[in-house]
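Our preliminary data section would be incomplete without showing what the modeling component actually yields. Below, a chain of 160 amino acids is followed by its predicted structure, encoded as tokens that our downstream tools consume directly.
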Amino acid sequence: MKGFARRALRVLHLFEDGLLALLLLALVLLAAAQIFLRIGFDGGMSFADPVARALVLWVGLLGALAATREGKHISLDLLSTRLAGKQKRAAQCISALVGMVVCAILGWYAIKLVQLEMEAPVVWALGMSSWVPQLILPFAFFAMALRFGLSALLGREPPA
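Predicted structure:
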């Protein structure tokens, strides 16, 4: 079972990394096309700017999720650099638990934000409702909360 879990995690991480790379490529290509059309033809795509803003949000949050997975997220290391052994592990566990709680709270409020958008949807771009690009918010924050929780449970960063 342990081997299956490791393979499943590897597949999940490859999917996350692939999606992140694909969205970043789409963002770069969209921005380049928009620049080309504006300079070369005094025009552009009306949907490009809102889609680019949504892609920045998605890339940023998926990047934060990947950083959390790798243990390269933003953190304050005031204590862990001065502690060793069990004390250091306890400080890391407390830090991970605080990160988990903060991300879970942000995920909860992100759900509320999406629900508010769903109550009065606005056409965003390409005929899509405005709440659709916001779905990354609760997903990413709850996934980060899960990763922080696993980190606290395991006493170290979750295995990549």
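Residues 2-154 form one domain. The mean pLDDT is 85. Preliminary results of this kind motivate Aim 1 of the renewal.
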